[in-house]
Specification:
alpha/beta; 4-stranded mixed beta sheet
Length: 394
């Protein structure tokens, strides 16, 4: 008899022509017991291998999860390693069972003498047991093969678990990188949110300014309309009194209605402006070229100045001027120019006057008068000398 412990399983081969019946029976019983023990050990190993495979698959699934499940994957990997250790323990148990089977075989051999009496009866049973033993051996061999496969699968699962752990570590690194990127993105988002808030504030200010501008524009438009209305009213008022330019004085206003005080027009004949005073037109603006000016309200009148040759060609009585030839003020009496009393230079020794009277004169009461004679009083004229006054002709 030989015992092969290659897989921790006891096998027997019965050779009828090499052993006696006692040995055959002992071998058969030992093989049966060993086969049963090996089968139980194989089943235990298979169960452990299946558990390891299941746990490895669980670890692989968990390892494929996101960075947030990395810690769980590592925990499952630790579980898988524990199961692999359990498988190794079960294999050791199988080896121990084989050793026990060997010891039991020895005990069976010791008890063979006791069983010899029952050998005849057990010969048929032995044949059956042989057949069963052979079947058990085959099953045990199959179980051993399965156990080997399970062990190989467990090793593969352990390798996969290690890969899963590596992948989990990579995922964890990627998760950290993603977290960093997320932090950067969050910071960028915060900056963009701040910029957006600033832009929104600026937009609100612009909108407010636009609203104010719109209000101001509306106010300006209203004011412009009011100004236009006022201007039109002023124009209407102006046109209601200004009668335009005309070569002669108008007799009605522009609407054909009677003239009213304040109406005025520009005369294109003499280039002067005239205002209607309620009964007639009078010159509104007098040229300073034809007006006697004064130095001030309480000052002196500024007489026209000229030589004797520059006197008016057709004077009217009452014209008054300063004659630079005679160096004295002179007045036209309607007929001739005569010096005005008090005028003349201090060196003048005479007063020149007309010798023909062509107007009525009256010496002021209380005054005297002197004239150089002879004096001719034209017909129809007279000189009145009040009582107490004297007119002396020399």
């Amino acid at each position: 008899m030989s015992i092969d412990r290659g897989y921790g399983i006891a096998t027997s081969a019965v050779i009828a022509d090499s052993y006696d019946l006692d040995a055959l029976i002992a071998d058969t019983e030992a093989a049966k017991v060993a086969a049963q023990a090996a089968q139980a050990a194989a089943e235990t190993a298979q169960s452990a291998a299946e558990t390891a495979e299941t746990n490895a698959e669980t670890a692989e699934t968990n390892a494929a999860a996101s960075a947030s499940a990395a810690a769980t994957s590592e925990s499952n990997i630790a579980g898988s390693e524990a199961v692999c250790a359990a498988s190794e323990t079960a294999a050791a148990a199988s080896a121990s069972a084989a050793a026990t089977s060997e010891s039991n075989a020895a005990t069976s051999e010791t008890n063979a003498a006791t069983s010899e009496t029952n050998a005849a009866t057990s010969e048929t049973n032995a044949a059956t047991s042989e057949t069963n033993a052979a079947t058990s051996a085959t099953s045990a061999s199959t179980s051993a093969t399965s156990a080997s496969s399970s062990a190989s699968s467990a090793s593969t699962s352990a390798t996969a678990a290690a890969s899963s752990a590596s992948a989990a570590s990579t995922s964890e690194t990627n998760a950290a990188a993603s977290a960093t990127s997320a932090s950067t993105s969050a910071s960028t988002a915060t900056t963009q949110a701040s910029n957006a808030s600033t832009s929104a504030s600026a937009a609100a200010t612009s909108a407010s300014n636009a609203s104010t501008s719109e209000t101001n524009a509306a106010t300006s438009a209203t004011s412009a309309a009011a100004s236009a209305t006022a201007a039109q009213a002023a124009l209407d008022s102006f046109e209601s009194v200004y009668l335009g330019a005309s070569a002669s004085a108008p007799t009605t206003d522009d609407n054909g209605d009677p003239l009213t005080a304040g109406d005025w027009y520009f005369n294109t004949t003499d280039n002067k402006t005239y205002v209607y005073n309620g009964s007639s037109f009078q010159e509104a603006v007098i040229s300073t070229d034809n007006v006697v000016e004064k130095t001030s309200d309480t000052g002196s009148a500024i007489l026209p100045v000229g030589t004797t040759a520059e006197r008016d060609g057709t004077p009217t009585a009452g014209y008054l001027r300063w004659n630079t030839t005679e160096a004295s003020a002179e007045v036209y009496d309607g007929t001739d120019w005569g010096s005005v009393g008090g005028g003349g230079a201090a060196t003048t020794v005479y007063a020149e006057h007309a010798n023909t009277l062509s107007e009525n004169l009256s010496i002021a009461s209380g005054n005297n008068a002197v004239s150089g004679g002879p004096i001719t009083i034209n017909s129809g004229y007279s000189v009145t000398v009040p009582s107490g006054s004297v007119w002396t002709i020399v």
